[in-house]
Design goal:
mainly alpha, Serine Threonine Protein Phosphatase 5, Tetratricopeptide repeat
Length: 388
């Protein structure tokens, strides 16, 4: 395989590249992508883009298709600015239809992952409108995941029920992952566990060993078991998910950081503060590198780290992180947003434990403790990872 691959790449790089050689490069890269061998696929997709560019006007559409595929791959690798540029560029040369729809729903997934939900929804709706029949399944599943993030659960579940009719096992993995995500965010942990296990079982049969959708299902299983109090199985599931993700996309991927957040939350709940601190610091560093210092995931990670430092009675360090991250989250989200509520809970604990009772009482009044502290598990975590 490797000698043949070298010949193809060398041919594409030369002046005498042919359309046949460009097509072979594209096919080779697509096969590697479908096997979740992203690192191997990337340079070949880039060679394919160059090869189609060398064909001039005759290769324009195929270049756009290869650019779209490269954008999809870069999104899977968590390299979002590069992915956005490639996908947007590909749309300039793609006519409305299946190919443009694919680029759009990949853009929608990218925006959803970054938390840009209005842009994500707009792209997903455009992708759905361009196609009919079976071609609508993928963009509508992306739309369902966006609705889940927006807490529009009834609309998301309607799409999932529609997609499940006649779906093959590979598609059902995505459907079951979405169902599990909704169940987690609505507190139906037994249902989340049921559909996570179904997704894992189907994924083992229908998808490559290290496919992101299988990793996402393991994460959801870990969340479901943790919220039901089975910490041992939860940790095992988290670690299985992390191993799959790291094999597919490396340790610096933002979804690996999300998993570290979840495992860190488990450690924190169990009093394993040293391990929790390490995981939250790693997650915060990744989010800051990928999204920037003011992105909500960076802020959430730093706020949870502050709560770990509070538990270690390192109040001075905790105060700096807590005050800054809470202020930024309050500027970014409305008062009732769950991320603000969680940060306020953490702030209350810090003020209470450090003997600042009057300030803690002010926070308690804002939270309306009787209801706010009763909602959900003790420590917030990033519940979902992108498995689409």
């Amino acid at each position: 395989m490797k000698p043949v691959l070298f010949i193809l790449i060398a041919a594409a790089a030369g002046n005498g590249v042919t359309s046949s050689e460009a097509a072979k490069l594209t096919s080779q890269a697509e096969q590697l992508y479908l096997q979740s061998r992203y690192a191997e696929a990337e340079p070949i997709f880039r060679q394919a883009v160059e090869a189609w560019t060398a064909q001039g006007a005759e290769g324009q559409r195929n270049r756009a298709l290869a650019m779209s595929d490269l954008g999809s791959l870069l999104r899977a690798l968590g390299r979002y600015p590069e992915a956005e540029q490639a996908l947007t560029e590909s749309l300039q040369d793609l006519e409305p239809g299946v190919d443009a729809s694919r680029a759009l729903w990949n853009l929608a997934t990218l925006y959803r992952t970054r938390g840009e939900l209005p842009k994500a929804e707009s792209c997903a709706l455009r992708a759905v409108a361009m196609v009919e029949g079976p071609d609508r399944v993928a963009p509508r599943l992306v739309l369902a995941s966006i609705y889940t993030e927006q807490r529009r659960y009834a609309e998301a579940e309607e799409i999932l029920a529609w997609a499940d009719e006649g779906a093959d096992d590979a598609v059902r993995v995505a459907i079951y992952n979405n169902i599990a995500a909704i169940a987690l965010t609505t507190g139906r942990y037994s249902r989340a566990e049921e559909f996570s296990r179904k997704a894992i079982e189907l994924g083992r049969r229908a998808l490559p060993d290290q496919h992101p959708a299988v990793a996402a299902a393991w994460n959801s299983l870990g969340q479901a078991r943790r919220f039901q109090g089975d910490y041992l199985e939860a940790e095992r599931a988290y670690r299985e998910s992390m191993e799959l993700w790291e094999r597919a996309v490396g340790e610096s991927h933002p979804n690996v950081a999300r998993l570290r957040m979840n495992l860190g939350a488990l450690y924190h709940e169990r009093g394993r503060e040293t391990g929790a601190e390490t995981l939250f610091r790693q997650a915060a560093a990744t989010f800051e590198r990928v999204y920037g210092p003011d992105h909500y995931l960076t802020l959430v990670a730093r706020n949870e780290l502050a709560d770990v430092l509070r538990a270690q009675r390192r109040f001075t360090e905790a105060e700096k992180l807590s005050a800054r991250s809470l202020a930024s989250l309050e500027r970014s989200f409305p008062a009732g947003d769950y991320r603000v509520i969680q940060a306020l809970k953490n702030r209350w604990r810090l003020l209470h434990d450090s003997g600042r009772g009057r300030e803690a009482a002010t926070i308690a009044n804002r939270l309306r403790l009787s209801s706010a502290f009763a909602a959900g598990p003790g420590t917030a975590a990033v519940r979902a990872v992108d498995g689409i």
